[in-house]
Design brief:
This protein folds into two domains: about 150 residues, no CATH class; about 35 residues, no CATH class. The two termini are about 35 Å apart. Strands 1, 2, 3, 4, 5, 6, 7, 12, 13, 16 and 17 form an eleven-stranded antiparallel beta sheet that branches. The longest helix is centred in the last third of the chain and has 14 residues. The radius of gyration is 19 Å and the shape is globular. The chain has one helix and 20 strands. By secondary structure, the chain is mainly β.
């Protein structure tokens, strides 16, 4: 790994600034987030190894056509520190007048894993008429393509969206695909729009896809899912979502 140009210890957090990316770590609970120009990568510490737990991408579309970034070398990353630590990335699209600013907010006094980050906000300026696509890859999903609702829990990770009162709207498409890609798509209806979408390591019960489950077990687990997470995918025949905290092996499809 390259040598950081600056390292800052802020309460329970360590921020390392590199020429090409920022790396924010909460070592007490073994999570970190790397923010590059084109993506952000969530890591979980397993033993002595940092394992990828999800990679976030944010793109704009004009219909089915991807809107290109303007002057990639002009993408900026910065941080501010007051009561909270906020890391922002600003990207210009099209001819440079379309702006997407993403901000991840962290609480330096927090010690629980679910507070990393406490917020992830996407602001779109001059984006009216376009489509915002938020995508997560490498979640470790093995299963069918299904519609999902917030909060969506897969293994130890959770994706939560539309949780702030100033959010502009709900996604018209919200799916996880058999290719291990989660998509949220929004039709941007205003010149300025904001969306809150947070990926984090959840200490709550997680679920993973399990194909080889007895019908009796599948029925029981379906009842548990529907009781605890009304919006989670549920068992169909012997294809089932099972709790990842039960000690069983999730073999998948």
């Amino acid at each position: 790994m390259a040598t950081p140009t600056k390292t800052i210890v802020i309460g329970s957090l360590i921020l390392a600034i590199f020429a090409a990316y920022f790396l924010i770590t909460m070592p007490g609970v073994g999570v970190r987030l790397r923010i590059d120009n084109d993506k952000s990568t969530f890591y979980i510490l397993e033993g002595s190894t940092w394992k990828v737990a999800g990679i976030e991408y944010t793109n704009l579309y004009n219909g089915s056509k991807l809107v290109s970034r303007y002057n990639v070398s002009g993408i900026t990353r910065e941080y501010t520190l007051d009561q909270f630590l906020t890391i922002s990335r600003t990207t210009r699209f099209g001819k440079g007048d379309i702006i997407v600013k993403e901000s991840w907010m962290f609480d330096p006094n927090a010690t629980d894993v679910e507070s990393f980050p406490i917020d992830h906000k996407i602001e779109c300026l001059n984006c009216k008429g376009l489509i915002l696509q938020y995508e997560v890859q490498k979640l470790g999903y093995v299963g069918p393509t299904v519609d999902i609702e917030s909060p969506f829990i897969i293994g130890k990770m959770r994706v939560l969206w539309s949780y702030q009162p100033d959010d502009t709207g709900e996604p018209y498409l919200h799916k996880i695909y058999s290719t291990d890609k989660l998509w949220l798509r929004y039709k941007i209806m205003a010149d300025y729009a904001t969306y809150s979408i947070r990926l984090f390591d959840s200490t709550s019960i997680g679920w993973c896809y399990q194909e080889t489950v007895s019908t009796a077990t599948a029925t029981l687990l379906a009842e548990e899912v529907l009781a605890e997470y009304q919006n989670s995918p549920y068992c169909i025949s012997t294809e089932c979502w099972v709790r990842s905290d039960t000690g069983g092996t999730c073999t998948g499809k």
